[in-house]
Amino acid sequence: xxxxxxxxxxxxxxxxxxxxxxxxxxxxxxxxxxxxxxxxxxxxxxxxxxxxxxxxxxxxxxxxxxxxxxxxxxxxxxxxxxxxxxxxxxxxxxxxxxxxxxxxxxxxxxxxxxxxxxxxxxxxxxxxxxxxxxxxxxxxxxxxxxxxxxxxxxxxxxxxxxxxxxxxxxxxxxxxxxxxxxxxxxxxxxxxxxxxxxxxxxxxxxxxxxxxxxxxxxxxxxxxxxxxxxxxxxxxxxxxxxxxxxxxxxxxxxxxxxxxxxxxxxxxxxxxxxxxxxxxxxxxxxxxxxxxxxxxxxxxxxxxxxxxxxxxxxxxxxxxxxxxxxxxxxxxxxxxxxxxxxxxxxxxxxxxxxxxxxxxxxxxxxxxxxxxxxxxxxxxxxxxxxxx
Length: 388
Known about the structure:
The chain is an alpha/beta fold. It has twelve helices and 18 strands. Helix 2 (27-34) packs across helix 3 (40-60) and helix 5 (80-92) packs across helix 6.
């Protein structure tokens, strides 16, 4: 049954009842209870929607309680913190009208409309388009959602184009930008005008057209996406890393030396690493690279920075399983965090072999310097970043 059945009348009533009584893992009991009063098919649709709203809170916060979802639409939607950052950047360019090609359930339409733009969504799937339309209406936001194909949409009447190409095929995630839908050739055409295109964070730097800014975005330390900005939205730099929720941003990669480990090791945020801006961390903390090809920075002093997590180096250890097991045992380590870069190892497998069982906690950083693997016993200094 379509989500449209839940928008008013008995459907809206059963949806409200399902959402009010929903508890994860208790779906069958809820279905049985509601079927005593409502149509069975309507109940199934409503309970499914209640479950999706519950899951959606992680991405959409309180808005999830009023929104409508499809399973695929929720999976592919951008979380609100990221889309709000994006909309705020667009608003600075005084964009009045925008079209979202492949708008999905309309998450980006909502935040763009809230930022003051007149929005149009284009969605190939009629059911998904209906959900996006319902979501705009749920917040009394102006705009329209059309059923259509991104590649045949007339773009001449819009100040800006936003696109989020599909990166899934047969239910599996696609990592090759040449396998996107619409195809990469269409994306590069869009980027010849004022546009923003959401892409996977693994996008190769050499695939990004000249004159286009690539912005890698992380949220609470987790890299979420890269956004390609062109035309009037181009920020004047080829690469940028933005760290949410604080909003710290870096776009310059100055030269940095490399040298022996200092008192502290800094692990740059994933967005900084993806953007190729690790040397900016070295400058920020008055430090240097452990190895010119590895994304670890080291310094003699601790300098708080939103761009990286910091670890105090306590001891250099031999990178040998027997020696590391002895260290774990002697320090009575029970909680062991293992960080690694430049070495071929599975932290979970190594942790299992080291068998931590004590009452203390520690961080083990394993990396490569030149041709040699090295290990450092560390203490995490920062767990959260200052707000920019």
